[in-house]
Design brief:
globular; 10 strands; binds adenosine-5'-triphosphate; 256 residues; Rossmann fold; 10 helices; four-stranded antiparallel beta sheet; alpha/beta; binds magnesium ion
Length: 256
C-alpha cells in the first residue's frame, strides 16, 4: 500500500525567512510518526501547511495519492485530515457531548431546512450522532463527563476531548500538536495508551508533535527531526536517540 501522507520538498517563506524548507516525510497506513525539534523549529508550521492554513511556497502534499494543492482547510478535513492544536480549543461552556456532536455537524446529511423545521430526518441523524458521540466518549473512558461543561474538565481530560473531537470527523490522518503539553506523568502515560488505542481501534495514521521524549520514543515507529526549518534526521526511535546531530541540536540542549 502506498502512503497515507507524503510531503515532497515542502517550503514556506515568511518575510524572507524560510520557516520550513525541503521538508520530506512519509506516513504509512496505521503508522504513528513523530515530528520533533526545538522550539521554533517549524513543527506547527508543517501542520499548518498540511491543513491548508498556509500555502507552501513550493512543494507537494499528497493524501492517499491525492494532491492537496489549492484545497481549503475544510476541503482537507473532508479528505480526511484532522488535527488538534497546541493550545486547547474547545467550546468551554458547551457540554462535553455537544462538543463532540458539533464536530460531526459538517458530516450530517440533513439540510439546514431539515434542522430548522426539526423534520424527522433531523431527529434521526441527531439520535445517531448522539449515540456515536457516546461511543467515542466510552472508548476514552469519558462518558461520566458527557453532560459536564467542557471547561470544567480536568486538564488531561480536556486534551483527550480535543482528540475525540478530531476523531469525530472520521479522519485518515490525525495530527496531534503537543498533546501531552502541561500534563503530569500519570496523564501522559494514560495519553500514550490512548493514542495506541486510537490507532488500533480506528485504523488511522497519526503524525505527532511532542516535546515529551518518553512519549515520542515509546510510541512512534518513525521520527523526523526538524531544526531551523530543516530535516536534520529521520529514522526509528533507536536511530534518532543515537544520532549525534540530533543530540547536539535537540536532545543534548534539553539535557543541559
Ligand atoms: N504566520 C507566520 N508569519 C511569520 N512567521 C511565522 C508564522 N508562522 C510561523 N512563523 C515562524 O516560523 C518559525 C517556526 O514556528 P513554529 O510555530 O512552526 O515552531 P514550532 O516548531 O512549532 O515551535 P514550538 O515547539 O515552540 O511550538 C518561527 O520562527 C515562527 O516565528
Ligand atoms: Mg509548535
Amino acid at each position: 500500500m502506498s502512503n497515507v501522507l507524503k510531503c515532497e520538498h515542502l517550503r514556506v517563506v515568511f518575510g524572507g525567512l524560510a520557516a520550513v524548507s525541503d521538508f520530506n516525510i512519509e506516513v504509512g497506513e496505521n503508522q504513528i510518526v513523530g515530528l520533533i525539534g526545538p522550539n521554533g523549529a517549524g513543527k506547527t508550521t508543517v501542520f499548518n501547511l498540511l491543513t491548508g492554513v498556509y500555502s507552501p511556497t513550493s512543494g507537494v502534499i499528497t493524501l492517499c495519492d491525492k494532491d492537496l494543492a489549492g484545497m481549503s482547510t475544510i476541503a482537507r478535513s473532508h479528505e480526511g485530515i484532522a488535527r488538534t492544536f497546541q493550545n486547547i480549543r474547545l467550546f468551554k461552556d458547551m457540554s462535553v457531548i455537544d462538543n463532540v456532536m458539533n464536530s460531526f455537524n459538517n458530516r450530517m446529511s440533513y439540510s439546514i431546512a431539515h434542522a430548522m423545521l426539526r423534520l424527522p430526518k433531523y431527529w434521526k441523524e441527531e439520535e445517531k450522532a448522539r449515540e456515536k458521540a457516546m461511543n467515542l466518549l466510552h472508548v476514552f473512558n469519558m462518558e461520566r463527563y458527557a453532560h459536564e461543561a467542557a471547561g470544567n474538565l480536568p486538564y488531561g481530560s480536556q486534551r483527550r476531548l480535543e482528540i475525540i473531537r478530531a476523531l469525530a470527523t472520521n479522519p485518515k490522518l490525525l495530527l496531534l500538536d503537543e498533546p501531552a503539553a502541561g500534563m503530569n506523568p500519570a496523564e501522559t502515560d494514560n495519553l500514550m495508551e490512548t493514542i495506541g488505542k486510537i490507532r488500533d481501534a480506528y485504523h488511522i495514521s497519526i503524525l505527532l508533535i511532542e516535546h515529551d521524549m518518553s512519549l515520542v520514543m515509546g510510541i512512534c515507529e518513525q521520527i523526523t527531526v526538524l531544526n531551523f526549518g530543516e530535516v536534520i534526521a529521520q529514522g526509528t526511535p533507536e536511530q534518532i536517540q543515537k544520532d549525534p546531530v540530533v543530540i547536539e541540536a535537540y536532545l543534548g540542549k534539553r539535557r543541559d
